[in-house]
Structures are given as C-alpha cells and as structure tokens.
User: Fold this.
Amino acid sequence: MSLITQSDLPDIIDMLGNPAVNEYLFFAPAPVEVYEGFFGPIIENTESAIAAGEWPEQLTVVIRNTKGTYMGMAGLPSVMFLEGNFEVGYQLAEHAWGQGIATQAAQYLTALAFNELNAHKVTADCYASNVGSYKTLEKCGFNREGCQKDYYKVENGFVDRLHYGMTKVDFFAKN
Assistant:
C-alpha cells in the first residue's frame, strides 16, 4: 500500500472502466477526463504533503501485491467543514475481490484516522446491494447508522444507500 502517484492513474482508470467494478460506484463509468480531473488535484496535494512531511487532505492509497500488480485503491478524505470527521472508501480490481484486501485497507485507514489524524468519527456508505462492501465495514467494526431508501438509480430501478460509522470511543473500545 502506498500513497497515490501520477503513475497509478492508468491502473485506476482501467479498474473503473470494468462494468463489474463500477456496478456499485455512482461516479463510474465516466470519461477518462473526469477521472483525470478528479484524481489530478489529489495527486498534486499528495505530492505537496509528502514534500512538507504532512498527511494529504484527501489521503488516497494504491494497493499492489508483492509482484506489483494493481489490486485497488482506498481513501480517507476529511469531511469538508467537519474537523475530525473522515470518510473511508475502497475500490478493488475484480481480480482482487474476496481476498480480504478491502478489509485490511479499511482497518488500516481507520486506525490511521484515529491514531494519527485525531479523528473523532469515520464514516462510510455503500449500495445496499453491495454485500461485500457492507460486510467489510461490519468486519472492521463499523456500525450501521442508517439507510436512505431508493437512493441510487441502477439499471433495474433503485437501490438503498447504507450508512456506517465509528467514533473514536467505538474504535478504542474494540482495540
């Protein structure tokens, strides 16, 4: 796992072009220019933060196996205007599913939020139909905090949005 760099962008774009991956992503598929416009500032901020010896504002990591094969990415962006609040998210390449990688990434970033970034709360959300994602959050100790009915438009209608969260008190009580 390493902080995102410009050289990771082709692998990210390739992953987000996979229909199996983007089935559960409201922002995909999208034109390459959209991804470049989104990830470009994150990469620039990451480079600046590294140079300054700080954590990036939109902390994004890329996950590769020991052979260097791209497995996916995960993020821990801060929530705008809510100091101490972060969101955790992850997207894995299809060949990386079912190996516990999302769980390890979410656990690592959650621990980083509470141990290094002085987080008060870490949240996440996912499609209710994305069983793998919400099971990952539950394995990591997140609590289901809510459901927005018919939130995401999908090919066959609508899917609920599930909300998960963990406070600093929750985290340290479990660790």
Notes: The mean pLDDT is 96. Residues 32-52 form the longest helix (21 residues). The radius of gyration is 16 Å. The chain is about 35% helix and 30% strand.
